[in-house]
Structures are given as structure tokens and as C-alpha cells.
Amino acid sequence: MTDSQPDVVIIGAGPAGLTAGLNLVRARRSVLMVDTNRPRHAPTLRSHGTLGLDGIPPLELRKIGREQFLAYPGAAHTNGRVEAVGADLTVTVSGLRGDPDLELRPRAVLVATGLSEVLPDVENLRAYYGTALHSCIECDAYEKSGQSLALIGSGPDLAARALEIAHWAPDLIVFAPALGGDDEERLMAAGIRVEREPVAAIEGEKAVMTGVRLASGRVVAREAGFVRPEWIPQASFLAEADAARDELGRLVVDARFRTTVPGLYAAGDVTAREPMQIAVAAGEGAVVARTIHLDLLGGLADSAPDFRDGGSIG
């Protein structure tokens, strides 16, 4: 690192951050990865849908990715919480688990911090989250094929999620005190029952989910299911940098994953893109790494071919 400062600081060590870091050090860039080591997918036993890695535990995937990144010259990692990223890209870090506080002045910053999840306030839900209950349909619906399922939560996309889940498991009940517009009629027409009584708890025997207990005490037998959390982008440290966000607070990026702040990039679940899958985040990490590398060469990224249909924030 030149004068002890990295070319790039990557905030977050999930699939997007690790893939970007690996590609950047292979481009002979010095990279410091800052991570709190509190991944959103920690409760999940297996991750699915990533070619060559289907069924791998997510924490094992992170471990392998970090080891491969750190095997290259120019790669460094620190346990820390980013307190602020300034408009001049100064990065202030509070060290964790014995690692030092840092003030960094990189040439580029990549935000790959993902989302935090606020789960429905239901007793025992966390005890089954990651095993019987999940939030990612694409990641976990196949393993629930043919089971009796619950969908618990709220939000304007709840009915659409229910219709998608029913493709794998038609025996589905949506537990939602309120649904918008004609959503309930749509679900009923598809043979999906709606239960409006508030959910009090998840019932089970040891590690096996057996049902959903409602506020009245009535228990509806269910083997597994999905929850619809509130997803909150983890980027509060960008207040001074003031990058543009969408209506949900996610960072807005262009087709090359640049934010509205020069030198500041974002990839993975912290951006306004879906679906939220490991393979998608990793792909974005590879794209943004090339963008950063070419931008540091003097703006060559804009002259490189781009086969994406993404919009522009310019």
C-alpha cells in the first residue's frame, strides 16, 4: 500500500465485497477490507443457487472467500465498524476484537454492507429462522417443496411472494392482518388461504416446527415457511458523503455500480437491485471491481463495452 494507504477500501465482506476484493488484488490493486463479521445470513445452514457451491454453509463460503482474497499481495483485512465516509472519501474506522482504529484515505471506496433484517415480532421465530423459516424464496423454496407452509409478515409485495412460494408448495397460508387492494381475492383465487388473526408464536418440538400459534391461542399446523422481514440498508456511515438513495434507502448506482459521489461505489444488497442472492451479489462484485480498476487507470471504464441494460444516474 502506498504510504500505508490502500488504493481501495471495501466495506463489508460478503459475496459482493469478497468477489470485488479478489478481482481488485488480481488487478494489482492494494485493498483493505473492513468488516464487522456479523453477516445477515449467519443463521442459514446452507446456501443454494450458486454454481459449484450449491449447499455450502454461508459462513464457510465467507471463510473460503476471505482466505482466497488474503492469499494475494496487496490484500488486507481488519475487523472494524466504519463510523463515517467523508465527501473526500476519508474512511473512519473503529476497531473491533483488538484491531486498531483507523483513518483511511483511499482512492476509491466500495460499499458492500448489504442489509439488516427486522423480523416480525413473533415469539420463537428466531429459534426456527434459518432452518424451518427463511426469507429468500429463490434460496430455500426448493427444500420446502410439498410441505405445509406459512408466510408471515407484511408489505406491498406479500401477495406476490405468496403466489411465487405456492409454485413449490401449494399448501400455503398467508398470516397477515392486512393486505392491500385486491390481494386477498388474488390469493383466494389461487387457492391460498389468508389468516388475519395476529401471530403470537411459532410452535415446535425441539428443532422441528409444528405450527403457528395465533393471538387467540389457536394453533394452525405448519411444517415450515417464509417470513417477510423489513430490510434496512446498512449505510448510515454515508451521511456526510450524501450519496443518492431510493425510496427504501438503498444506494442508487449506475450500470457500472458507481454512486452519485465520485470515487464511491456500491454493490450487493445495499443497492436498489434484486433478487438478493449470493450469485447476484458476487456477479456485481466482479463488475464493480473492473469499474474501479479502469476508473483508477484514468476513466477507461466508460470506453469499455457495456452489455447491461441498466439506467443512468447521470
TrEMBL record:
<protein>
    <submittedName>
        <fullName>NAD(P)/FAD-dependent oxidoreductase</fullName>
    </submittedName>
</protein>
<keyword id="KW-0560">Oxidoreductase</keyword>
<dbReference type="InterPro" id="IPR036188">
    <property type="entry name" value="FAD/NAD-bd_sf"/>
</dbReference>
<dbReference type="InterPro" id="IPR050097">
    <property type="entry name" value="Ferredoxin-NADP_redctase_2"/>
</dbReference>
<dbReference type="InterPro" id="IPR023753">
    <property type="entry name" value="FAD/NAD-binding_dom"/>
</dbReference>
<keyword id="KW-0285">Flavoprotein</keyword>
<feature type="domain" description="FAD/NAD(P)-binding">
    <location>
        <begin position="7"/>
        <end position="285"/>
    </location>
</feature>
<dbReference type="Pfam" id="PF07992">
    <property type="entry name" value="Pyr_redox_2"/>
</dbReference>
